[in-house]
Amino acid sequence: TAPSETRTADADRQEYKRASALMDRIVGQLTSLPRSAAVVGELTGFRVQLNFGTNDPRGVLEFAEITDTPTARDAAPGCVWFEARTTIEGIPVRAEVLLSPEAAAVFEAQTPKPNPAPAAHDAEDQAVDDTVTVLPAPTAMPLGSSVLAHVTAVSPQAAPTADAL
């Protein structure tokens, strides 16, 4: 027998509409627009996915600030994912950007480390600086300075003829 469906099409449609409206409200508050914004269906419902492209974490930082969400870093070979995840009105929301290792190093060097919490006895004497320096847009690399500009081109070989076999 086929498994019974626990969700109805009407309930899914309403949840999708809620997630879509939430996505529109979030994007409407951002000054750094995402490269893509989507409502993504999952087994447990829908989530909002905001992708800010590559090498410019301003959108993720802005989303994290608006939603009071911590950011996370996940390194993979040759790249670094920088993201913020939260749940708003019962809907999971994720903002992400892909950084090159170089852009991630520059970004992390420019971003101040969180200040440790002041001790209880001197909490009134210390002000915590929460400013974040945003990574400038990356500059283009001239083609002549690329490693690929110095690699010898390989020309295609002619297919062997019947006489050569």
Descriptive account of the structure:
- The protein is of the alpha+beta class and 165 residues long.
- It has 3 helices and 5 strands; from the N terminus they run H-E-E-H-E-E-E-H.
- It has helices at 9-29, 58-67, 101-110; strands at 36-42, 45-54, 71-76, 79-88, 91-99.
- The protein has a 5-stranded mixed sheet.
- The radius of gyration is 24 Å and the shape is globular.
Short description:
With 165 residues, this protein is of the alpha+beta class. It has helices at 9-29, 58-67, 101-110, and strands at residues 36-42, 45-54, 71-76, 79-88, 91-99.
Widest sheet, order of strands: 1-2-5-4-3
What is Rg? 24 Å
Low-pLDDT runs of 5+ residues are 114-141, 145-151
Beta-strand content: 25-35%
Mean residue pLDDT = 76
Give the N-terminus to C-terminus distance in angstroms.
60 Å
Number of helices: 3
Class based on secondary structure composition and strand pairing: alpha+beta
Tertiary shape: globular
Helix content: 10-25%
Number of strands: 5
Major sheet: 5 strands, mixed
Order of helices and strands: HEEHEEEH
